[in-house]
Predict the 3D structure of the following.
Amino acid sequence: MSRSNPLTALARRYRFARPRSPLRWSAEGPGPALACLPAIAIPLIVGIGMGNAPAGLVAAGGALSVGFGSFQQLSDIRALPMMLAVAGMAVAALLGTVLGEHAMAFAAMLALWAGFCGLATTLGAGAWWSVLQWVIAMLVAGSRPGGLIGGLERALLVLAGGSLQILIVSAVWRLKLLPEATTQPLPPQPLRIAGRLLRRHFSLHAPTGRYALVLALSVGATDLIARQVSLPNGYWAPLTLLVLMKPGFRETFKRGVQRIFGTIGGAGVATLLVALLRPSEWITAGLVVAAAFGSYTLLRVNYLAYSVAITAYVAFLLSLAGTPEPVIAAHRVIATMAGGIIALMVHAGWTASERARLHAARTEELTPRS
């Protein structure tokens, strides 16, 4: 029996939060999702009440993203994924807002962060998720550039919403008011293992290092293309590519199809509800919170259903900013389809090159040397 590489065994053990692990409904129910909702509702209520709904939207968006960290785990510090997410998101919001007007500079910075996100996949879903939030925050902020002052304001709002989420969820955990999200046991000394894994894979000789480079270049190039063709809300294209493109081709293809159909379904549901209800700002805020609840609850249940819920959330959220719902739906569907198609094309090319590299290595090993 062959002995496995010790670092490979550590990496396998470190993957304690798998993206496709099922949500144990009987043990948890909607508790973890309910714990995340107050931090989303409060900024919306304050923003609408003060006549500044856009500020409430930014803070609520930060709270939503950070809330997903309550389903992750990186160390014995339970809130560490949320803390890393909100800190990185605030920095990304500042950089994205400032660099958003400069296409090349923004694409270069975006590529750098996307590459690190790809490298983080070797550490498991928790680390990947934390870094993913940074890149998403940069993409969203870059779509609405506003200079240094605007960047600082956006960063503070994201920080406020995310920090509120951490405080509320941590209080719920401490008081044991609701069940916690299911997590897998941590390995011993996880942060030290993470450092060893990153050093091992930070190389073009490692498959993960090559994957990170491909992800960085493709995300940066997709953003430039979306800007060049003036794709409305074009940041959804590189965002979709970033979320979908996984090291495994089958997972990328499956998630790509589910993301596209989920986006179409979510956009349709949101548009239909708004057309039937003609909601006020307050009712729309309620729809935002309801869609957020669906997103949290369905995260580990079914990716297609989750895509429907998160798309509806974005549509309701942007409708508070004054963008007509049918316009939001059309823009998101088009950009998501573009990003999904690009992800499949890029990933097919990358996997083909990896197979060719593996075949060449095997041929070289089998070739007799004189």
